[in-house]
# Entry
Amino acid sequence: MPKRSDINSVLVIGSGPIVIGQACEFDYSGTQACRVLREEGIRVILVNSNPATIMTDPDFADATYVEPITPEVIEAIILKEKPDAILPTLGGQTALNAAMALHEQGILDKYGVELIGAKVDAIKKGEDRQIFKQLVLDAGADVAKSVIAHTTEELLEGAAILGYPLVVRPSFTMGGLGSGFAYNEEDLLRIGGAGLQASPTTEVLLEESILGWKEYELELMRDTNDNCVVVCSIENVDPVGVHTGDSITVAPALTLTDREYQNLRDIGIQIIRDVGVDTGGCNIQFAVDPNNGRVIVIEMNPRVSRSSALASKATGFPIAKIAAKLAIGYTLDEIPNDITRVTPASFEPTLDYIVVKVPRFAFEKFPAADATLTTTMKSVGEAMAIGRNYSQALQKALRSLERRGSSFHWDGPVGNKADLLELIKVPTDGRIVNVQQALRAGASVEEVFESTKIDPWFIDQIVLINEVAAAVKSAQSLTVDVIKQAKDHGFSDAQIAALRGVSEAEVRVTRHQFGLRPVYKTVDTCAGEFPAETPYHYSTYEQETEVAPSDRKKVVILGSGPNRIGQGVEFDYSCVHASFALSDAGYETIMINCNPETVSTDYDTSDRLYFEPLTLEDVLEVIHAESASGELVGVVVQLGGQTALGLAKGLKEAGVPILGTTPEAIDLAEERGQFQQILDAAGLLAPANGTATNLDGAIEIAARIGYPVLVRPSFVLGGRGMEIVYEQSALVDYFDRIKDQGIVGPDHPLLVDRFLDDAIEIDIDALFDGEQLYVGGVMEHIEEAGIHSGDSSCTLPPITMSAGQIERVRAATELIARGIGVRGLINVQFALANDVLYVLEANPRASRTVPFVSKALGITLAKAASLVMVGRSIASLVADGHLPKRDGTYIPAGAAISVKEAVLPFKRFATKDGRFVDSLLGPEMRSTGEVMGIDVDFPTAFAKSQSAAGSALPTSGTVFISVADRDKPQLVLPVRRLEQLGYKIMATSGTAEILLRHGIHVQVVRKHSQDNAVAEGPSIVDLITAGEVDVVVNTPSGSSARKDGYEIRAATTAADKAIFTTIAQLSAAIGSFEVVKAGPFKVKPLQDHARERAESIA
# Structure
């Protein structure tokens, strides 16, 4: 059936900010969909609140609305744009829930807009636990015995029927939010209560426990002609009990017999038919009892899911692209396969390699959190690797994580077998390495299976890796055969070096002398049956390489590896932009990355894609393979965050040309003494500071410059290990906590700075070509200094800075860029205290804010930077129209204000006793993503940013206030305005006393801890938990108040209410309370904002 002729415009709903459970894989799928629809001549309207993604680039849609994804906003867009259809299946659970809300509120019927990609009843059948259960039984499969509950009483009744342990699963949530295993009544009330709140329909499914069963997934697609394909089978290495996003997974499934696989396939096809998914993809999860083979269907997602991105990258089959074509009427047999160009999409992919995905966690950011892995997803990113066998792919994937201790090792004494077998009973980040150590200590496959329930085949593969390690260690000398065997099983040069007691460089020299280098095979969807037209490669140690020679000028771009807090999709955005710009400029672009969720690892983003770990060894081998033909112009390292920068020195030493800012110049900015010399020469100030490599040195510096001090390790990203320290005892405690992390030592000094209280923090992103500075944007942080720039709200243009102050920031940035020797991007952070400008730090690389600046002002900074790196001047880029004539310091009258707000994952991390971790912000970054609000004035833009971040300001209700003494003088004006607007004010006794003196009506409530002033009534924590408080204002202070504050903030996080932890933030938001009371938001696409700015410049 050809394309439908009645669809001329489509509204695509994006997935919003990056959160745990819904990361940049939906940016990848949404970007693909937008590209496909426009190629088909359809007008694309996009709504997505996330500025960091490729998808919200104005180039990918005809009208791009960076607005909150709420039914009210979407209705305003429908009214303005009048789309024929809405496509909600490529924006994760956020888009699906928004589409269901539009349907339930009658908005779709009111405007005559059709849902495509999935019908409402198909979404209901897939997501509603009760309906789905019946469908599975009708398909001849089994489901876990279960009970539906809507109240606490029903939870307890269900437990009486099913018995403990049992599984708690809320309906309509994503990434397993609110789910878990309850072993007793206390667990059930805690997890079930949170689950009822997490579910938008207040519905929870209780299921019999299937802990320890094997878990599988099938990724399927179906069209309106009932053609059905299984794109990929995926097997979890961890058994049931660990969320699939947190488990090591492998594709294709390896431990099923053909008969078992065909059975899962038959069940999957029957379910996709019965649910009625006929224009897209779905993901079905199965559990298999290892004792008797009983198959249970766990759940299905009637949309493109997290696993769809993995399946797409694993097979080369572009699920999102094909789903978009199916949604507008095509059938699978009408869509050609991009990679072979001869087979249709109805041709199921076949793999002649193994793919392994390993999750990346961020527990070091939340020391209080329980690091046990459960059915609630906690990982913040993932790495994928491709090899010719499981051991090769697994070892490549583990080294792609870029974490100390993530790879298998054979150092040090053998551990205690009994202790290790006990340790691996609990699933945690890094359990796989503990399994390897248990086997090394003499545990048998059976003993490890009993402890972990990991399938014996996977355990046996680790035994094999240990045997190869023993052979490498005991060999007389490193022969060709010894190295070749190690490489066949995925060993890195570093691992071989550690086993032999030599350096990595020595192993590399020996290997090269033997002529032993990897060859590169192609991901071709058909196991070599048809030639592949797209160069999408992975390395292995075999005979024949499939890299086609080319005679073009080549630029290698290093990606940013797995997502983590502090290094997310923003860096991928810059890498993708560089690839597009350099390709347009006539260069052959070569991308190296190992993150399956991103647009950079799409096979048609760059001219060539290498899915490889970002280690020096792996990158050098790709560069060697590419240098065999054509001309290597150089490597771009300044766009992929700390991952790519960390490789710059090693590449330069190996004789590889680095484009843009040199590794030596990058070091100038990182090395405190040298950077201070640049500032002194330029006449610029930095806060009093020093560097220490141990505790005694740090105490001495702190005593000299005075507390409070800001301590931060050098060469880290995302403020890792950064803290404000108010006294010596806290400094001693800091060194205790970081001693095992390896982030401070002789080679990595600790930077100790005088902390500037009450300063405004400023961020600037700019380009420098050696002659001219071009400012992308100057951003003012809403919170005062001391909160990491990635977690702080910021506004562009600044709202309290004068033109003179902005010019001082620009001039200082130019002096720093010149002093360092920047060629490309630079980000500088300043603090403005009492009108004195201090330089906090300079980063000669792409920063996290590059996408935000680009969207807010329509300046494509990353594209321009990549051209500067290959020798273009800023003047020529302005002349050619790549950059606007006036830079980001120009603020025309009536310019739109953009506000960036961080999205924080506190809801995902609970302590061992089930309470949420503290939502207090500090100098170490904790946010996973960001949203943007843009409008004509600051209050409206800020209100939009809060709504998009999921903590919309209420139009009425109760505001609770409890602040530190130092904040009380600034409190009166904002609170008086809130009272005038009709909000009810509650406060603890100390704060209430001040407010009452100023004539503000306030209800005094009891503190959480002992309160002599108020003896009776519920405490503030009880009131928040009961839903009687709508907004919380709480700034931290001394120790007992600090504990009180923690309880208050944890309860607020659990209740999903707006929270302000600084007075600056509250004062900024006062105008926004007025805006939300005044009525619904108006909407305008980025293209219109950009046009208005361009007209004002012209």
Q: What stands out?
A: The CA atoms of residues 241 and 390 lie 23 Å apart. The radius of gyration is 28 Å. The first strand starts at residue 9 and ends at 13.
